[in-house]
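Appendix B, record 7
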Amino acid sequence: MNSQIQSFFDTQTCTATHLIYDQVGGHAAIIDPVLEYDHKSGRTQTVLADQLLQFLAQHQLHLEWILETHAHADHLSSAHYLQSKVGGKIAIGAHIDQVQNVFKKLFHLESTFPVDGSQFDYLFTEDEEFSIGALRAKALYVPGHTPADMAYQIGDAVFVGDTLFMPDVGTARCDFPGGDAHMLYRSIQKILSLPKQTRLFMCHDYPPNQRAVNYQCTVEDQKQNNIHVRDGIDEESFVAMRKKRDATLDMPVLILPSVQVNIRAGELPDAEENGIRYLKIPLNGI
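Structure tokens (predicted):
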């Protein structure tokens, strides 16, 4: 059965959220959903998540999975909000425990915060197969950007998370805790070894030269045109480029609020005695 894909783009964080389903009235998965967050006021909104819910309702879809490619550092996840409305299993790669361990220490989270991934309903292992209604899917382990990144192969489409951007943008940074440019190169080669017409769906687009936003291409497009990792660029050249470039990059604007929410599967911290929830900002911590 051919999959149906509808994508939604958040202009604040340049994030593409993808909704994939087998048929009208069937089953669906949502990949990398966004919770809007205003870092100046500390307020959250559910604009994009509500668009997803509306689409599910209009097409009479049962949400089976909410798939995270990794614990994002540039946007908060709306996975918990979506699940509270329509159900679905929140899933991520099994190596999320490594990320949780690092950031539990950085944010000095409560001693009872588990670092075993148990905040998520399901943890995928490498090349694990699963289903979305009538669709067959596979979880691909693609570390490098973080030690826990997954991509999801569903039919002739692969949702690559932050491993790759559009060919004229390049590849993900590797300077977060546990990141590794050698690993990212090998993960990208794993994706680019797929048939050349395989459709690749990006998690982000940062269009240069005023081109229109786009978050879909093919394996062949990447192999021929990616400015960082096209055919002919070997591992050592890629690693040297990635390290030099990463050294010039600022931290993402939303890294501090994002990570501490996303390692909780999108659930906000519990409210304190005054009824208000709080996020932590570690001063001089990173």
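Remarks on this record: The domain at 4-262 is CATH 3.60.15.10 (Metallo-beta-lactamase; Chain A). The CA atoms of residues 56 and 251 lie 35 Å apart.
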